[in-house]
Design goal:
This protein is mainly α. It is built from four helices and no strands.
Length: 102
């Protein structure tokens, strides 16, 4: 049951924060881009940058949790945290690529 609660809580946190980043991106667009024809591209760039920052910080926290679970000998939670960290790493790859390319 601990594994289920761990995963559900982390997924909910991920979805909620990404939704907040998506909802807040239009308010962070500079004024000169806000009235332009393609302002949605600037919103997308800001959303991708905010998402990248959050995912990298969440990945670092997840790696810290792996270390903590290893020290307390909670092998099942450690394995779950490893899988979740791999998922976060896979999510961060396209975000890195997008931020480097554009």
């Amino acid at each position: 049951m601990d594994i289920f609660k761990y995963l559900i809580l982390r997924i909910i946190i991920l979805v909620v924060v990404l939704q907040i980043c998506y909802s807040g991106a239009p308010y962070l667009v500079p004024e000169e881009f806000r009235n332009a024809k393609f302002d949605f591209l600037e919103e997308a760039m800001i959303f991708m940058r905010l998402s990248l920052i959050f995912v990298v910080l969440f990945l670092a926290f997840s790696i810290y949790e792996i270390n903590k679970f290893q020290k307390t000998k909670r092998v099942q939670l450690r394995n779950t945290a490893i899988i979740f960290s791999a998922f976060l790493f896979l999510v961060s790859l396209p975000l890195f690529y997008y931020n480097i390319k554009y």
